[in-house]
Amino acid sequence: MFHLGWFVGNGYGLNSWGSDWAGSFDRSWTDASNYIQLARSLERASFDYMIFEDGLMIPNAYEGSMRAYLKHALEGPRNDPTALVAVLSQHTSRIGLIPTLSTSFYPPFMAARMLATLDHLTHGRAGGNLVTSSSHRAAENFGLDQHFEHDLRYRMAGEWVELVEALLASWEPDAVVFDEASNTYADHTKVHEIDFEGEFYRSRGPLNTPPGPQGRPVICQAGGSPAGRDFAAQHADTIIAVPLGIDGMREYRDDISERMRRFGRDPRDCKVMFMVNPVIGETDDDAEEEYSRRWAMRDSEAYLESSLATMSYFSGIDFSQFDLDEPMPDLAGQVNGHQSSMTRYAKDGADGRTLRQLVIGHDTVESLRLVGSPATVAAQMTEAMEHVGGDGYLFTSAGFDRRHIAAVTDGLVPQLKKAGAVRSAYEHEHFRDNLLAF
Ligand SMILES: Cc1cc2nc3c(=O)[nH]c(=O)nc-3n(C[C@H](O)[C@H](O)[C@H](O)COP(=O)(O)O)c2cc1C
């Protein structure tokens, strides 16, 4: 069996601007009812989790201006996903809920407190997607002149998570006694100052929030560089990744397993989820037709500009300066942002394709091409997972499209359930227990 997750691209944000089938979402994106509906659909399909992307700025990497980002609603606007998770906790009972938190800018004490609070509210279904944030633009919002260097960010993140874990463990599991006879709420000998002194952070402790049902909420990680993979191999319960093709997926899983063993962990204790965006039709022919139609729509000025602006944001390099009809320039060593995403572009561009061809022909959000009827896509997913040897898929989609959500949760997943490829019902109350159940 394998696991299922849903990546809410652009997070609690306007992730549908300009897309078909968004209905009223464009204007009502702040309304939690949209997400409640999505969460309930995913829970009906027994998904392990839904995860909310997040960022902490309006970018200006393209043309040195916010114009393209605000015009196309790219990487913003975004509301705080932790608040949304608190609302969703009241409308669901089993699905794991993961907001993104930046280790570079969230103070560790506040993050530990937020995660423990969400774990209480969700009754043991909270997680955190720990990202280091990638742009100078975000750093400037927190008083820095520029962001920390790529590998330094991960070194800081390692210490950050150690401190968060120490704070979450500052209350022993049996510290709360509720002893009416002695009129005692908690045994103070079981709540500890931690006196954490690191290279980057210090904290006295203890947390003033008692531990939630999971103790340590589920930790998710997303960066694919060597430093990012080491960080994940040490700390993560689940990784979300977008390697290219089945062989890339297998290489990624094997590499994480190897790194986990090096850090003394059992590779089965972290689930690597690969991003996919299937095109599902009534029949295989319908789906192929829809797939071709979508690719044809890419050859437009709006698509080109949105993609170049997104690449500029990812890399921190202004792509408006390059000639679209020349091959992609060699940017090795210049990227302080998402190194793994840019490596993917560079690999695709190695055959001399022009930047225009590369942008129109490149897919950043798919590990695997999945196109067909629900039964066909279910078979494709099962076969690929057997080859990869683990752990599951993370669905994503461009825009908030209820038609697509239904195709996945009410068309595809029932086929996967019938084949015994995914769970047919949740076995456990808590998120981590479901995640590690197989
Ligand atoms: C599937 C996926 C989801 C991500 N989600 C976020 C996010 O929500 N917020 C963010 O700041 N970065 C996000 N990132 C970026 C990573 O956290 C990381 O900063 C980036 O990949 C650069 O790290 P790397 O050089 O190790 O790849 C995501 C990356 C991937 C692959």
Automatic annotation (TrEMBL):
Residues making up the signal peptide according to the UniProt record: none
Domain of life, per lineage: Bacteria
Native species: Herbiconiux moechotypicola
Family the UniProt entry places it in: Belongs to the NtaA/SnaA/DszA monooxygenase family.
Pfam families named among the record's database cross-references: Bac_luciferase (PF00296)
Keyword Ribosomal protein belongs to the record: no
Protein name as catalogued: NtaA/DmoA family FMN-dependent monooxygenase
NCBIfam families: FMN_nitrolo
Stretches assigned to the Luciferase-like domain: 31-390
